[in-house]
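User: Predict Carbohydrate diacid regulator's structure from this.
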Amino acid sequence: MMFSYLISFLQNRFKLISQQIEKDSDVSDIMLLDESINFYREDTLYIGHLAQLNTHIPAPIHMLYFIGDIKENSTIMTNSAAFYEKEFAAVFNAIKQEFLRPIKTEVIYATMLKMIMDGKGLCDILNEAYKYVENPLVILDISGKILAHSTSFNVNDPIWTESIQLGYCPFEFMEHIKQQRLKHSSPSDSQAFISICKNTNLVYLCSKIFSKDTLLGYVFIFECNKKIDDQSKQLLPSISCISCEVILRSQGNIGLRLNVYRSILEDMLSGINPHHASERIQASQLQFPEHMRVVIIRPSYYHGEHYVKGQLQEALLSIFDKAPFLYYKGGIAIIVPLTDDYHIDINSFEKLTRLLNSEHLQAGASNAFSKPWHFADYYAQADSALRFSQRLGSSENLHYYENYAFFVMLNSLPPELTLGKFCHPSLGLLRKYDYENGTDLYKTLKAYTQSGFNNKHTTETLFLHRNTLSYRKQKIAEISGIDFTDPNLMFLLMYSFYIDDFLNKDI
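Assistant:
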């Protein structure tokens, strides 16, 4: 979280004597000041007495300290604030809880996922949530039917008490929701928002339940036992998401387990912290292969979403049964299991190859990996393999990231870096000579290099007589001065031709 947010958070709870924010930045950890520390981490907030500051090394970027000699020390601190020593424990505990709050939410969410996988219903989930929010909860469908509520439902309104027994929410409350929708005064997604029903003076926190763009219902937390807090606001959209899964299951839609896989994979692509993803995977008891690759399959020509989600998805699942997958950006991303020697088993590989050929599909495959919470990184690899294969004009339909990693690296270099100057000088000399004399020495050297300096393979590739190749090699050496007996030459020429291809393709 940002340092400025922490200062604002503390100002609402404690009296800060002074504060200074020169350059706002992110803080991801908290530590007590200790003069034995050898260096201060940039992402850490240090708390304590100034006497514990190690003045022999650069001061920490983020610091909260007891009141002391502010003038002498504050100038060396980028982001800092001073507070009274008597509040040290309270300040430290408050910040610690604020750091833990997102993690707690993820753990609660994972627990709820496990509950629905174990067949638990909405009421069980709301009772679990009640332990953390300490206020009554209820889930309504769009018609006002009460789908579930927490066992403890001490809303101080007799109409609500009666409605719980009847199974429908009060008419006045449903009208209030309807007016909110008509006025567009609430979020169009599952973001939690606080409002008040003026007819009953009932304060509530609400999150809408969506399946894609279809509104399924609402989940509410009523402010009864205590004020609605930040944790409730952060947790409620997760409860909404979980509720959607249970509702879809009860309606006989796509399998719940596949939905759980898909949900976590999508969250990882959206940027969820890998540590949080790991906790959710473990708590949900999802099974992944010991060794795996991400394979992205997309049609070479536009077939529409219906084809990809229907025929293509079924074909892939018939090859890789029960493999986690999701539809994303016009294609199917599937986690493919590997053998102990890190290959797709021969039977599945042959079926995949036939499918790619018959359906005119393109596939990108990541490197092998074993930690599923790093899925997003390997999805990016498979996507890069697809993109660079198209830009380089590959005639294949299954593209491995390992064959394109060099080009990905080149593409990541700053544009002001002139790549051509890193090529072996022989390439430029041969291009010039070919242009002036109508020869093919550049093409010959490229084929000879790509064959691993193998005369037989080169003559077969270029349809040359071996004597012609011998003559061309002598001419190449004469013009460029290269020595084919140099053991480093093949490597130097190989990466030079890669760079040349990269530049000529204008990637």
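The longest helix spans residues 88-117.
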